[in-house]
């Protein structure tokens, strides 16, 4: 008998009002059923929001340092449960244990950062233009925050959204991806153990088109944060625009690694292998384009193909594997369709392009690391997000051309430049149109205490992580106190002759 999980609404674990459930299976071996989770509907969301509003009334009055203390205790619990969480995450999501341990660590870092932010949440005190008048700004919570999270970072991304929202004094309704519901289930259990008042957090499982849509449209959820596809983000953006909601969108990428002719090629090789094939290419920050200077193009490609063929596919919970499965069959079909598109467009398939044969990997959604050479900037292979282990290689003659190619896409999350030339390094920071640029490091590797996000169609101008996200989850309020005892008119009395 597989376990049946529930939503967490109004302080207790509740079955969905729909009476329907979905299955969560291990993508490395679909015979392994992790559990059944609620396929919730609008009525579940309404109950969750009602409860969150009650939770908000308690939580917004709790001093921010005390709110931070809950997250410090949660950080301690994440440390204690790191192995168990990583193992469970690999089981439901597929990436190898070293990566899921990193995912938990990102949650730990985010928790400890948030804990101390409870003692900052700075406002400003500035001089007034009038005598005996005080002027300051400070932060207030917004209300119920609705969070929609993706499958690829099952723990880290929920923490990026939840922890700052909570420290700022908001109540939370979260709907995790239906591909990884178990990790968020555990996170909520740990939040309760850490002492979060129950009605401050609501967990509602389900699909985007039903549960997700219901709270994006709910009038009592004034702030929404979403990480996922650009298509879904556009839909959410329209709804939030119409309802005047605050919205943070974190969406697609088409990130490039540029390798100049003076680069340390071994370093660049390690970087691209990790960037392109880590997490089986299922990161917003994955390296999906490799832009090579013509002088090193052939030499680098030879090494790259050989190294990619040496990557070991397999169950991420067992030692010795580098690359896990894709998240589901639909995703594998999408990757296969791009292999066909690339071949039709005239790109040259150097390796991969198909699922592995044989019994060992036959029950999972595995796909071989795939490299296309001879890709030109206008090809769909060079423009569209694939979200799988497919790398498109483009050849350029100069740094300027590399910049043009990098910038010639609709996305703008991360980019990377390998060079020994300090002048080029700084030019890259200025000229590459991305939210994050790495020098001599791959396109992935964001740290929890710095702002994370992208330009163009990757996002809508907000950042997660670091100090900026706290602005997103709070309202700035301004207070003036006039202790002069007389009416002082701003802009008038101070300028009287
Ligand atoms: C994502 O790609 O979806 O940049 C998030 C990284 C991670 C976060 C990635 N820390 O490597």
Question: What would your notes on this structure say?
Answer:
This protein has 497 residues and is of the alpha/beta class. 38% of the residues lie in helices and 21% in strands. It contains 15 helices and 21 strands. It has helices spanning 42-59, 64-80, 82-93, 97-117, 156-167, 181-193, 208-216, 230-243, 265-277, 294-309, 329-345, 380-383, 399-407, 422-431, 469-472; strands spanning 7-9, 12-14, 21-25, 33-38, 124-127, 133-141, 144-148, 171-175, 201-203, 223-227, 246-250, 255-259, 287-293, 348-351, 370-373, 390-396, 411-412, 414-418, 436-439, 455-456, 474-482. Helix 2 (64-80) runs antiparallel to helix 4 (97-117), helix 3 (82-93) runs antiparallel to helix 6 (181-193) and helix 9 (265-277) packs across helix 10 (294-309). It is globular and about 80 Å long. The structure holds 2-aminohexanedioic acid. Residues 106, 152-153, 283-285, 444-446 line the site of 2-aminohexanedioic acid.
Topology:
Layout lengths: L6 E3 L2 E3 L6 E5 L7 E6 L3 H18 L4 H17 L1 H12 L3 H21 L6 E4 L5 E9 L2 E5 L7 H12 L3 E5 L5 H13 L7 E3 L4 H9 L6 E5 L2 H14 L2 E5 L4 E5 L5 H13 L9 E7 H16 L19 H17 L2 E4 L18 E4 L6 H4 L6 E7 L2 H9 L3 E2 L1 E5 L3 H10 L4 E4 L15 E2 L12 H4 L1 E9 L15
Parallel strand pairs: 7-8, 7-10, 8-9, 10-11, 12-13, 12-18, 13-16, 15-16, 18-19
Antiparallel strand pairs: 1-2, 3-4, 5-6, 6-21, 14-15, 17-20
Helix pairs in contact: 1-7, 2-4, 3-4, 3-6, 4-5, 9-10
Bound molecules: 2-aminohexanedioic acid (UN1).
2-aminohexanedioic acid binds next to loops.
Average pLDDT, to the nearest integer?
97
**Number of helical regions:** 15
What would you call the structural class?
A: alpha/beta
Number of strand segments: 21
User: For the largest beta sheet, what order do the strands appear in spatially?
Assistant: 14-15-16-13-12-18-19
Separation of the first and last Cα atoms: 85 Å
Q: Bound small molecules, which ones?
A: 2-aminohexanedioic acid
Proportion of residues in helical segments: 25-40%
Please compute the radius of gyration using only Cα atoms: 24 Å
Query: What about the largest sheet?
Result: 7 strands, mixed
In one word, what is the shape?
A: globular
Quote the beta fraction: 15-25%
Q: Ranges with pLDDT <50 over ≥5 residues?
A: none
